[in-house]
Amino acid sequence: MAASLGRVCKSGLLKTNYGTLFSQHAHNFSTANRWSKGRKALLTCLGVTAGGLTALIYALEKSVQASSGAIIPHYKWSFDGLFRSFDHASMRRGWEVYKNVCSACHSLQFVTYRELVGVTHTEEEVKAIAEEVQVEDGPDATGAMFMRPGKLSDRIPSPYPNEEAARAANNGAYPPDLSYIVNARHNGENYVFSLLTGYCDPPAGVTLREGQYFNPYFPGGALGMAQVVFDEVLEFEDGTPATASQIAKDVVSFLMWTSNPEFDDRQRLFVKAIIVFSTLSALTYYWKRHKWTTLKSTKIAFTPTQKKI
After folding, report:
1. Which residue of 128, 145, 243, 303 has the fewest C-beta atoms within 10 A of its own C-beta?
2. Rounded Cα gap, residues 156 and 167, in angstroms
3. d(CA 31, CA 29)
4. Distance from CA of residue 162 to its chain's centroid?
5. Residues near 108 by Cβ (< 8 Å), separated by ≥ 6?
6. Number of other residues whose CB lies within 10 A of the CB of residue 222
């Protein structure tokens, strides 16, 4: 009797345990299945979003390139490459080009004179350059504004007091500020160089209004700025031949610096980072080989033991 009761209880207990175990596995499977479906949906949404953003960026990039007109060639610059830097002699000549040619119409309102120190000129030279202009200051003790010679802390003044005066002097066209002109244009340095050296006669069928000039690198081709870069339009103080291409190259180098004044510092930091990370990688590899070589080369052998009778 006791044996029969035990067998019945045991069978019931086993049935209960197996049923519970099966139900638990089924619940876990359904939960995992739901999680896997949710994860798939999330990954699908992320993939579609990333693909859409990539397509949008690509389309915008192509539209910017197409709006620039003719195909802009790529020229070799001193600052192209991971380990390159600015040509400071070219930048100094570029300042001469801006001062004697470009400053008649274009401003550099986001550049101060002190930023030129140690980049294109010495401190004494920059002070002398700043003192050549008169800057409005004040008010004084009587409340009146007055004019004073420029200082290192002053911004490079604009040739016009306001936008309306600039448009009135240029047949309605507004000469853009050149502080960040290279960054403001796609393929900026090559665009500016091509624009300065690309003036030509308009092709047949193209009619220009009075005060416009044809340049294939400008969107639409009709440009309100006349050609200003010619051979020997100025003389460089270091004796470099002032050809049109040399003038355009030097002013582009200077404008590249005004758009990216931290470029040389960023390049130096990059070189330092390469040296530091290379050294750390070599030390880490050596430490790994030194610490793990004993574990990797250790041989573990199991010898059978004889049983004592």
Report:
1. 303
2. 20
3. 5
4. 30
5. 98, 155, 156, 177, 178, 179, 258
6. 16
Model pTM score: 0.74
| Segment (H or E) for 23 | helix 2-67
Residue 40, amino acid: K
| Least-confidence region, from 90-94, 155-159, 201-205, 261-265 | 201-205
- Type of residue found at 88: H
Q: Which long-range contacts (CB under 8 A, 24 or more apart) does 230-233 make?
A: 233/101
In the block, tokens 């390469």 appear at 274
In the 8-state DSSP scheme, what is residue 119? T
Instruction: Output DSSP code: residue 133.
Output: S
User: What pLDDT is recorded for position 288?
Assistant: 86
Q: What are the tokens at 24?
A: 């638990």
Helix, strand, coil in percent for the chain, rounding step 5: 55, 5, 40
Helices 244-259 + 188-197 axis angle, to 10: 150
Residue indicated by tokens 């290279």: 182
| Residue carrying structure tokens 């460089």 | 236
